[in-house]
Batch of 2 targets.
Target 1
Amino acid sequence: MRLQGKAAIVTGAGSGIGKATAELFAKEGAQVLTVDLPGKGTGLEIDIAADGAPKKIVDAAVQKFGRLDIVMNNAGIGSNQLAEEFKRESWDRVLAVNLTAPFFICQAAIPHLRDCGAGRIINVASVMAEGTDYGLSAYCASKAGVAGFTRTLALELGKFKITANYLLPGAIKTGMTSPLWDARPEVADVWAKKSALRRLGQPIDLAKAALFLASDDGAFVTGHGLTVDGGLMLRV
Ligand SMILES: NC(=O)c1ccc[n+]([C@@H]2O[C@H](COP(=O)([O-])OP(=O)(O)OC[C@H]3O[C@@H](n4cnc5c(N)ncnc54)[C@H](O)[C@@H]3O)[C@@H](O)[C@H]2O)c1
């Protein structure tokens, strides 16, 4: 029960990494506000990029639990257009969901994280914050942005005993990757074989890393990007 008495928000909790993390946090004793798009079956159904959504999400958690200790910004979308063809509306949407909404959820949470005395921000970036692949210009820009603003939050919020860290998942089998990998198993196989541990990541691999950062064990870790990729990015 490493999160006994804590209250958490997990976005994108209807699937994949967010679902596994919300379940693990709850198993460890936390009260969790699960957030996802309408129809996903979570506690609060909202588009995190909608006008006013960040404040609504934070207010809902504080109203429900009377406190807020942990914010896990996990909801995210991919991009798949070559730079020459990238549509402005796709660019804006990827940046709005993956970068702007998480920042403003953090901002709305700051007073409450300060009040709890040991606040935790965990933002989900990607190994694509540092690497890249075809079609990922907006995705890479958004994830590099998440890493950047999380380091700044760590610096600015340390005086309130709030830590801010980000995860860099590698190739993880989730709702984001399954459609492609189920249709083309050879692609999944390439990713699996490329990693030192010779397998794809599972949502629980990320949930366990998030638990470390959220719990007292991670109390002196801040401004850190934790790569959870089974050694995928070791080789150049
Ligand atoms: N799967 C991977 O290989 C991988 C690798 C690196 C990073 N990531 C990151 O991990 C995070 C979680 O992704 P996942 O792989 O579990 O994918 P997923 O598609 O299984 O889960 C993402 C969830 O976010 C929700 N979501 C998307 N847009 C939203 C919005 N506007 N408002 C509210 N909810 C929204 C989706 O409905 C979905 O349930 C993402 O930020 C993703 O970029 C994933």
Target 2
Amino acid sequence: MRKPFLIGLFFILILVLSACSTTSSTNISVKMTDFSYTPKDVSILAGKEITLNITNDGKVEHEFVIMKPGMTVGDDFGPEDEENIYWEVEAKPGETKQVTFTAPTEPGVYQVVCGTPGHFMAGMGAKLTVVKQEPNS
Ligand SMILES: [Cu+2]
């Protein structure tokens, strides 16, 4: 009774994992509005140079701040969080720009927040998933 269920679960897990890895890339696009990111979950390849196309469709300046591994801001981004920043970029209202950064070598889920006071509190947060590159891709 139990075994087929476990095997089924195993294959579902494989499917989910492979689906995730095919969507990760070295070229990502993120749109910022007042006050959210689209998409809210971005997947990139560990250790690679990443090209980020970022657009601010909001009426105020926004930031895309990647926190260091295991680091999260509390209720909102504050001065105490500055030292825990892995990488950041900001964009003015209506601005679109292309920037590059090197992805963390450590796979995992990294917190992304807007560093403008009150914005993270207003819901401006996202998730950056760093995955190891598939050996055959
Ligand atoms: Cu913001």
